[in-house]
C-alpha cells in the first residue's frame, strides 16, 4: 500500500463500500474464545449495538457475519474491517492531521496494535489477555478519522473504545479524554465484564493498552529489573558477595511478562520463565528477549544446575506449564533464590492462566464451553502450584507476588497462602521493594517516545536523561541515592540492551524533580533541533499516584485507605487542566476488573514555551499528588519526600500527619 493509499484509508474512516472479507490468520496469536454468557435477547442487543456503526443498506449483509463472530469467538471484532496496511508506529509526519498532537496520538495507537508489540493484534488486545485498545475495528477506523480531522481547539471523548465524538474545547484542553470500564461499582465483577464487553458497551483497557501508552515489554523491563536487583540484594545467602548466579523462577512470556528474562539478564541472574503458549515463547526468543527455549524438563533441569554452578547470566524459557516446573524443582531440591509469577491471574478464566494437565487447545475449549469446570481446574492448579512454592520457600526461597493477583486468586482457590494473622504468607513486591524504596519517594515509570521514529533521536534523549541524573546524584540525599544510581546505570546501558520493540521509546524511574528536568532538557533540544521532532511523554499507571490498587500499587498503605480510589481520580482531573495532551481513567488493569482504578496521561512536547509551562505544572502535580496521599498514610519515606518538596516549592502546603505513640493507643482501647 502506498503512502497516499494509507492516508486515504485513514481519512475514509468506515468505508462506504463493503470491504472484502479477510482470511483468519493462523500465524497470529489470537485471543481465546470468550464464554457464551449472553441471553438470546442480549445477543440480539449485541448485534444492534454493532450494526449502529454502519449504514442501513449494509445491515442485512453484516448481521449474519457479526452473529457468527459472536458465536465463534464470544465477541464481535468486525474482522472484515481490519485495515489492509501494516500496523506499526510511523513517523509523526506520515499521518494525515491538522493537529500535531493528534498525529502523535495516532502514532501511539498504531504502536499498541503492532503485531510485534500486541499480544492479540487482530482482536485489538495489547497485553494481559484482555487489555484492549478498542472493542472492534469500526471503533479504530472512526477514531483515526476523527484524529486526522481534529484541530487544537477540539477534544475527542472516548467511552471504552467508542468515540463519542469531537467536541469544541480550547488549545489548552486535552485533545482526548479516555475512560475504560467505568461501570457502576456493584456491576464490576468478572462476569459483568464478560457481559458488557460482549454487548459492545465496555472494555478492559488494562493500564496502558486502552490509554495508548504501551511501549512494548520494555515498559515493564525496567520495573522488573529494579525489583529483581533489590530482591536479590536483600536476600543474598551468607558467603555470597554479589547476586550473579542467583536463580529466579517465574512464569509468563506473553504481553508485558516478556520482560522477565530480559530483566534477569540485566540484573545478572539465572532466570527460568515458564510459558504454556509456544507462539508467545517463540516470539520472545525471536526478539532476543530470552536466550534459550527448553521443551523438556529433563533437558531444562541439568541446564539450570550448570548455569547456577557457573554463576552465568542467562535467561531460559520452559515451554510448558509452570506447575510442572515448580513441582519438578521442589522434587529435585533445586535451590531457588527468588520466585514469582507473572501469568495474567487478574483474568484467570479467559486466557490469563492455563491449568496443569491440559493442553493449550483443551484449555481454550473448556473455558468457552464448560466455564464452571474450567474454573475448578484453575483452582486445582493454583493449589498445586502454591504447594510446590511453599516447599521451596521453606528451604530458603524468597517468593513475592508481582502484582498480577496471584496471591489473591490462590487464596480464593483455597491454596495455602494465608498466615495466622489473616494476611498473605508472601509479600507483594510493592510492600517489600517498590513501595518503600521508590513510590513513597515519588520514583516511578516515566517514559517517552520519539515521534520521528529515528534511533538517533532516542539516543540523544538517553544522553540528556543521563546528564540530568548525573547532576542530581551529586547533591542527592542518602535516601534516594540508590534509586538515582540504579536508574543512571539503566539509562547508560539501555541502548546496547536492544530494548526497543515498536516505537522508539524509553523508560526510567524518576521523581518529580527528575521528570521535569529531563522533560525540559528534551524540550530545549527539540527547540534547538538536536531532537528532530516532538517527543511524547507519559508513564505507566503503575506509579506513585496514578493507581489505587490495594493488592499492588497501594499495598504498602496501611491506614485503610488502600481501598479508596480518590487519588487516581484526582490525578486525572489535575493532569487534564494542567496541560496533558490526553488523559485516561480505567476500571481494572494488572490485578483485575473491579480490583483497581487507574489514571494515566500522555503529553506531546514540541520545543515551545507553552510545552515548558505544561511540563512544570503537570508533572509536578502528577507525582506530588501521590506523595502527599502516601504521607498522610504515615509512610515515612513520603513524609520526608513531601517535606523536601515543600521546602523546594513554597507554594506547596500539604497536610501532615501527627504520629501517635503505640502505648497511647494500647492504653486507651478495650479489645
UniProtKB/TrEMBL annotation:
EC identifiers of the protein: 4.2.1.49
Keyword Protein biosynthesis: no
Domain Urocanase Rossmann-like: 216-433
One Pfam family in the UniProt entry: Urocanase_C
Cofactor list: NAD(+)
Domain Urocanase N-terminal: 87-213
Cofactor annotation comment: Binds 1 NAD(+) per subunit.
Molecular function via GO: urocanate hydratase activity
Keywords: Cytoplasm, Histidine metabolism, Lyase, NAD
Pathway: Amino-acid degradation; L-histidine degradation into L-glutamate; N-formimidoyl-L-glutamate from L-histidine: step 2/3
Gene3D superfamilies: Urocanase like domains, Urocanase superfamily
Enzyme class: lyase
Keyword Transmembrane found: no
Record's catalysed reaction(s): 4-imidazolone-5-propanoate = trans-urocanate + H2O
Positions annotated to bind NAD(+): 128-129, 206, 275, 402, 590
Family label: Belongs to the urocanase family.
NCBIfam families: hutU (TIGR01228), PRK05414.1 (NF003820)
PANTHER family: UROCANATE HYDRATASE
The protein, known as: Urocanate hydratase
Gene: hutU
Amino acid at each position: 500500500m502506498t503512502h497516499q493509499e494509507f492516508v486515504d484509508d485513514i481519512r475514509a474512516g468506515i468505508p462506504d463500500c463493503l470491504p472484502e472479507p479477510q482470511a483468519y490468520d493462523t500465524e497470529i496469536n489470537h485471543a481465546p474464545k470468550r464464554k457464551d454468557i449472553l441471553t438470546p435477547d442480549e445477543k440480539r442487543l449485541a448485534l444492534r449495538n454493532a450494526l449502529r456503526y454502519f449504514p442501513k443498506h449494509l445491515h442485512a449483509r453484516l448481521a449474519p457475519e457479526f452473529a457468527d463472530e459472536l458465536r465463534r469467538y464470544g465477541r464481535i471484532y468486525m474482522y472484515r474491517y481490519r485495515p489492509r496496511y501494516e500496523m506499526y508506529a510511523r513517523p509523526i509526519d506520515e499521518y494525515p492531521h491538522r493537529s500535531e498532537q493528534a498525529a502523535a496520538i495516532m502514532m501511539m495507537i498504531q504502536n499498541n496494535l503492532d503485531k510485534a508489540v500486541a499480544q492479540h493484534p487482530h482482536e485489538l488486545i495489547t497485553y494481559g489477555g484482555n487489555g484492549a485498545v478498542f472493542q472492534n475495528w469500526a471503533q479504530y477506523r472512526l477514531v483515526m478519522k476523527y484524529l486526522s480531522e481534529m484541530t487544537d481547539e477540539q477534544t475527542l471523548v472516548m467511552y471504552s473504545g467508542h468515540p463519542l465524538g469531537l467536541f469544541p474545547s480550547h488549545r489548552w484542553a486535552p485533545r482526548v479524554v479516555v475512560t475504560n470500564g467505568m461501570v457502576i461499582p456493584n456491576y464490576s465483577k468478572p462476569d459483568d465484564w464478560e457481559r458488557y464487553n460482549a454487548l459492545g458497551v465496555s472494555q478492559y483497557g488494562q493500564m496502558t493498552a486502552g490509554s495508548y501508552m504501551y511501549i512494548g515489554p520494555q515498559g515493564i523491563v525496567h520495573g522488573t529489573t529494579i525489583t529483581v536487583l533489590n530482591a536479590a540484594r536483600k536476600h543474598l545467602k551468607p558467603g555470597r558477595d554479589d547476586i550473579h548466579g542467583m536463580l529466579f523462577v517465574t512464569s509468563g512470556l506473553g504481553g508485558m511478562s516478556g520482560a522477565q528474562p530480559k530483566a534477569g539478564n540485566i540484573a545478572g541472574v539465572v532466570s527460568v520463565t515458564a510459558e504454556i503458549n509456544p507462539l508467545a515463547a517463540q516470539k520472545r526468543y525471536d526478539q532476543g528477549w530470552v536466550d534459550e527455549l527448553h521443551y523438556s524438563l529433563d533437558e531444562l533441569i541439568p541446564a539450570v544446575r550448570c548455569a547456577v554452578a557457573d554463576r552465568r547470566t542467562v535467561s531460559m524459557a520452559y515451554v510448558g506449564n509452570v506447575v510442572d516446573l515448580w513441582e519438578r524443582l521442589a522434587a529435585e531440591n533445586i535451590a531457588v533464590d527468588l520466585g514469582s509469577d507473572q501469568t495474567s491471574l487478574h483474568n484467570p478464566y479467559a486466557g490469563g492462566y492455563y491449568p496443569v494437565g491440559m493442553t493449550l487447545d483443551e484449555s481454550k475449549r473448556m473455558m468457552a464451553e464448560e466455564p464452571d469446570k474450567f474454573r475448578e481446574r484453575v483452582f486445582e492448579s493454583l493449589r498445586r502450584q502454591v504447594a510446590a512454592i511453599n516447599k521451596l520457600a521453606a528451604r530458603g526461597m524468597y517468593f513475592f507476588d508481582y502484582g498480577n493477583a496471584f496471591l489473591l486468586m490462590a487464596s480464593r482457590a483455597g491454596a495455602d497462602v494465608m498466615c495466622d494473622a489473616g494476611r498473605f504468607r508472601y509479600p507483594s513486591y510493592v510492600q517489600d521493594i517498590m513501595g518503600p524504596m521508590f513510590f513513597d519517594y515519588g520514583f516511578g515509570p516515566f517514559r517517552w517516545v520519539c515521534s520521528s521514529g529515528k534511533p538517533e533521536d532516542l539516543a540523544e534523549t538517553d544522553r540528556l536523561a543521563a546528564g540530568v541524573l548525573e547532576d542530581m546524584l551529586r547533591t542527592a540525599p542518602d535516601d534516594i541515592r540508590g534509586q538515582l544510581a540504579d536508574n543512571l546505570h539503566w539509562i547508560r546501558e539501555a541502548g546496547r540492551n536492544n530494548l526497543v520493540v515498536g516505537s522508539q521509546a524509553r523508560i526510567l524511574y524518576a521523581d518529580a524533580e527528575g521528570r521535569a528536568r529531563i522533560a525540559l532538557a528534551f524540550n530545549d533540544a527539540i527547540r534547538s533541533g538536536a531532537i528532530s521532532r516532538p517527543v511524547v511523554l507519559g508513564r505507566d499507571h503503575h506509579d506513585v499516584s496514578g493507581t489505587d490498587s490495594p493488592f499492588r500499587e497501594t499495598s504498602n498503605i496501611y491506614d485503610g485507605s488502600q481501598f479508596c480510589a480518590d487519588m487516581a481520580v484526582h490525578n486525572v482531573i489535575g493532569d487534564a487542566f494542567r496541560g496533558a495532551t490526553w488523559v485516561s481513567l480505567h476500571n481494572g488493569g494488572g490485578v483485575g476488573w473491579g480490583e483497581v482504578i487507574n489514571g494515566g496521561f500522555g503529553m506531546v512536547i514540541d520545543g515551545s514555551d507553552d510545552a515548558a509551562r505544561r511540563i512544570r505544572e503537570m508533572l509536578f502535580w502528577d507525582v506530588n499528588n501521590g506523595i502527599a496521599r502516601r504521607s498522610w498514610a504515615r509512610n515515612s519515606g513520603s513524609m520526608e519526600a513531601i517535606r523536601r518538596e515543600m521546602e523546594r516549592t513554597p507554594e506547596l502546603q500539604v497536610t501532615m500527619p501527627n504520629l501517635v505513640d503505640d502505648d497511647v493507643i494500647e492504653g486507651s482501647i478495650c479489645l
